[in-house]
Design a protein that fits this description.
Order of helices and strands: HHHH
Low-confidence stretches: 140-152
Shape: elongated
Mean pLDDT: 89
Number of domains: 1
Structural class: mainly alpha
Radius of gyration: 18 Å
Strand content: under 5%
Length: about 150
């Protein structure tokens, strides 16, 4: 169940921004005690990360009808698809918790889960894509939104 190239590019671009800003924020957050530049960088990185997350939520929502449901019905790449959907759900829940939950006891746990899974996401996405393309076989022309051409 290949995704339309423009939509796929948007997904890859947004998740790249999320990964880069999240990883850079981890560095800036560790360094912010040493220099005010790091404090400003951490704040700006977090702002861009949050904005990209809002776009990612829209794209993930759009994936449900055009990719997840179709792939599920076609019984394609279910295992890594479930892993990807679950991982993104946990990232959404932990991001919500980091922003809105005031519990100082839960915050370190949510933070570790969030950045641990966020750092793992590119590898898991790559595995999902590679396995999906490998199992696509003769349905490789079945891009989302495009009918499969058959010879008559």
């Amino acid at each position: 169940m290949r995704i339309d190239p423009q939509f796929r590019f948007a997904i890859y671009a947004v998740f790249t921004v999320l990964f880069i800003t999240g990883a850079a924020w981890l560095v800036a957050d560790q360094m912010k005690e040493s220099d005010e530049v790091w404090q400003v960088a951490a704040a700006n990185l977090l702002m861009v990360h949050g904005g990209a997350a809002m776009v990612a939520l829209m794209l993930l929502g759009a994936l449900v009808p055009v990719h997840l449901r179709r792939a599920w019905r076609a019984r394609k790449n279910r295992t890594t698809g479930i892993v990807m959907a679950t991982l993104n759900l946990i990232l959404i829940v932990t991001a919500f918790g980091l922003y809105y939950v005031g519990s100082e006891e839960m915050r370190p746990w949510m933070s570790r889960i969030h950045y641990g899974l966020g750092l793992a996401l590119p590898v898991l996405l790559l595995v999902h894509v590679v396995l999906g393309r490998r199992t696509a076989g003769d349905t490789a022309d079945n891009s989302v939104g495009r009918p499969v051409r058959t010879e008559t």
